[in-house]
């Protein structure tokens, strides 16, 4: 795949798709990871004398302008981070966008308003894509978090510009989530958590081809426990996915992949839990009785998983081990975060909740790579082609 390093951008209008879909509280950005992650590409383009025109979506505004989802506040934040003015166009197409794009000088930066204020974006409407494309001479996609969407600004636009390349963030994401997990230094240990087997089964299936060990946590462990004939009491489980889980266990055996489930769990009173608190809690080894609900992995499991991570050369972690938003049931997740960060292995955090958890744990500086993708990371780990990346190859 070609990157911005392979082309000459000086004096060119470079249309860059980034993923500035950041969490906001009012006008306040509560996590700027995705803005920071786009900086290497933006700074490089500026230093090379490109005329940088940035587009992104924010939230899901349903194809019409909605101030709640305006990228205006992001322009200010970006300007501070780049250390230079960032112009803002109140629309991503039409005369205001064209005027602003065409009056840029070399090394100047313009941010366009939310592309999802137009229905044509998510519809991947060719007319809308053509209008976006007309703003630039060159297209750069660096929106890894949105690469699983075939939208006008991620896919359609590539049909109307001759030069289409990726930025440094997409390049890095493909390296860590792709190459480094396809040809891993071994042992390659995968830690997967989260609530549902149905959300992760395709990732599990793909990783069974690559990993040496898969360690399971989170509520999906209870569906696997049912598949082994165990009891889970009132724990969250998916009875209709037990057969799917059983097949995955069988495949792991056939492939020689060690598949570990929690040997103990933190359980709480199921009635209290339904009322919104953990209530009484205890550590439960083996089967979980009715009236109790598993909410985190227990200390023995933590020790086992820690040891596996310590012996690993490559670690991939996606999904929390328990309800880490509540302190009492956060120990498993934070212990895994610590083990992954403090170990000597190449450590890759597969995006979403696990990135949130590792940041809360204070260990994020020590991991090798944290993906900026949520759905995009999962689809990529599943082995699916990402439309935003495929389009660059085809352009
Ligand atoms: C994300 O946050 O996963 C991406 O920005 C994609 O957003 P979407 O799910 O609204 O398409």
UniProtKB/TrEMBL annotation:
Substrate binds at residues 19-21, 34, 57-60, 116, 149. ATP binds at residues 200, 294, 325, 351-354. It is found in: Cytoplasm. GO terms for biological process: gluconeogenesis; glycolytic process. The keyword Nucleotide-binding applies. Its EC number is 2.7.2.3. Keywords: ATP-binding, Cytoplasm, Glycolysis, Kinase, Nucleotide-binding, Transferase. The keyword Plastid does not apply. It is an enzyme of class 2 (transferase). (2R)-3-phosphoglycerate binds at residues 34, 116, 149. InterPro entries: Phosphoglycerate_kinase, Phosphoglycerate_kinase_CS, Phosphoglycerate_kinase_N, Phosphoglycerate_kinase_sf. It catalyses: (2R)-3-phosphoglycerate + ATP = (2R)-3-phospho-glyceroyl phosphate + ADP. Its main location: cytoplasm. GO terms for cellular component: cytosol. GO terms for molecular function: ADP binding; ATP binding; phosphoglycerate kinase activity. Pathway: Carbohydrate degradation; glycolysis; pyruvate from D-glyceraldehyde 3-phosphate: step 2/5. HAMAP family: Phosphoglyc_kinase (MF_00145). Belongs to the phosphoglycerate kinase family. This is Phosphoglycerate kinase.
């Amino acid at each position: 795949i070609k990157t911005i390093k392979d082309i000459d951008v000086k004096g060119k209008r470079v249309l860059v798709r980034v993923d500035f879909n950041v969490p906001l509280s009012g006008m306040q950005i509560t996590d700027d990871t995705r803005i920071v992650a786009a900086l290497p590409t933006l700074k490089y383009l500026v230093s090379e004398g490109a005329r940088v025109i940035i587009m992104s979506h924010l939230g899901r505004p349903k194809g019409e302008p909605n101030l709640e989802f305006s990228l205006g506040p992001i322009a200010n934040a970006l300007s501070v981070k780049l250390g230079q003015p960032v112009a803002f166009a109140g629309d991503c197409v039409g005369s205001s966008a064209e005027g602003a794009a065409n009056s840029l000088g070399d090394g100047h930066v313009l941010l366009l308003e939310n592309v999802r204020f137009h229905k044509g974006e998510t519809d991947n409407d060719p007319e809308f894509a053509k209008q976006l494309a007309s703003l630039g001479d060159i297209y750069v996609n660096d929106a890894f978090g949105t690469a699983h969407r075939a939208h006008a600004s991620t896919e359609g636009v590539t049909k109307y510009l001759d030069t289409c390349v990726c930025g440094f963030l997409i390049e890095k994401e493909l390296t860590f989530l792709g190459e480094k997990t396809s040809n891993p230094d071994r042992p390659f240990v995968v830690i997967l958590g989260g609530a549902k087997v149905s959300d992760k089964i395709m990732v599990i299936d793909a990783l069974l081809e690559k990993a040496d060990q898969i360690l399971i946590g989170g509520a999906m462990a209870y569906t696997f426990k049912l598949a082994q004939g165990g009891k889970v009491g009132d724990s969250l489980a998916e009875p209709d996915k037990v057969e799917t889980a059983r097949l995955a266990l069988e495949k792991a055996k056939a492939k020689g992949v060690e598949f570990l489930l929690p040997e103990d769990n933190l359980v709480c009173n199921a009635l209290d839990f339904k009322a919104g608190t953990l209530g009484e809690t205890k550590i439960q080894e083996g089967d979980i009785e009715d009236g109790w609900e598993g909410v985190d992995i227990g200390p023995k499991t933590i020790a086992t998983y820690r040891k596996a991570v310590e012996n690993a050369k490559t670690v991939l972690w996606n999904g929390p081990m328990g309800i880490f938003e509540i302190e009492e049931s956060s120990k498993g997740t934070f212990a895994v975060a610590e083990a992954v960060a403090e170990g000597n292995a190449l450590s890759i955090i597969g995006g979403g909740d696990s990135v949130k958890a590792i940041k809360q744990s204070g260990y994020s500086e020590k991991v090798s790579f944290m993906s900026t993708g949520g759905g995009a990371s999962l689809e990529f780990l599943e082995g699916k082609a990402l439309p935003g990346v495929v389009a660059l190859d085809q352009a």
